[in-house]
Design a protein that fits this description.
This protein is α/β, with parallel strands linked by helices. The chain has 5 helices and 4 strands. Strands 1-2-4-3 form a 4-stranded mixed beta sheet, sandwiched between helices. It is globular.
């Protein structure tokens, strides 16, 4: 296997069933961050209590959520290629996939790609930014053979 484009630290803090393997998580992150070779990020898979605590602390929302992105805020002069951390709540991802009738692996891929795009500055706060981010997500997921995730959104 060739050297990965990214240095991905995968932390498994969840015992949920059907978690994606490391290779899939890395492949999805590399796809989203293809223009960031040599960079580093952490992907932490968690259960609802940790997700809820982080969501409450950092976003003021007291419930677990699918993915949280924590971009690195190191000063540029340090020249450290750290992109940041993704925290993905396994039970929320599984529940959403079931509720939305999506294949679980496809929803996991979407959450990793979505989170990675947040790490490099994409957002969906206003409609124009959301349209740009969602178009990129659709294109990247299509490269993986995954259907438009926004086609069946709630």
């Amino acid at each position: 296997m060739p050297d990965p484009q990214l240095d991905v630290d995968i932390q498994r803090a969840s015992n949920a069933p059907n978690l994606p393997d490391d290779e899939s998580l890395i492949r999805w992150a590399e796809l989203a961050l293809a223009d960031k070779p040599g960079h580093e990020l952490t992907i932490r898979l968690v259960d609802e209590p940790e997700s809820q605590e982080l969501n409450a602390t950092y976003r003021g929302k007291d419930y677990p959520t699918n993915v949280l992105s924590f971009p690195s805020d190191l000063p540029p002069e340090l020249n450290i290629p750290l992109l940041g951390d993704l925290v993905i709540c396994a039970p929320v991802v599984a529940r959403e996939a079931a509720e939305q009738g999506k294949p679980l692996a496809g929803h996991w891929a979407h959450m990793v790609i979505h989170g990675c795009l947040h790490l490099v500055g994409y957002d969906h706060i206003d409609d124009d930014d959301a349209e740009q981010m969602e178009a990129l997500e659709r294109r990247l997921l299509a490269e993986l053979g995954i259907a438009d995730p926004y086609d069946c959104d709630e």
